[in-house]
Specification:
Number of strands: 5
Order of helices and strands: EHEEHEE
Shape: globular
Strand order of the largest sheet: 2-3-1-4-5
Helix content: 25-40%
CATH superfamily: BMC (bacterial microcompartment) domain
CATH class: Alpha Beta
Number of helices: 2
Structural class: alpha+beta
CATH topology: Alpha-Beta Plaits
Largest sheet: 5 strands, antiparallel
Amino acid sequence: MPSYRITLGVGALRAGTDPQTVLPAAAAAARELTVVEAWDLAVVRGEPRITVRFTADDDEGATHVGRHTNAVVETLADVLAPQLTRRWGARWYPVR
């Protein structure tokens, strides 16, 4: 089964959102629909980014998981530059 990842830049938090809840909420959202392989938080050029890696049968299914995850995170914070990628060998390629 192919591996995918959704990467979301995190902007301003919604009122009352604890910053420590955003990444677990993203992973839980994806887990509602598929198997989550890993999740991570990184700061890239001063911007926090969360990544959730998961499996899906195909690009269509992965797109559904990515959109759902994005929608859940948008209830907690502004989402910047969401990107869905698929792993081929050792590289990640954008899903179109």
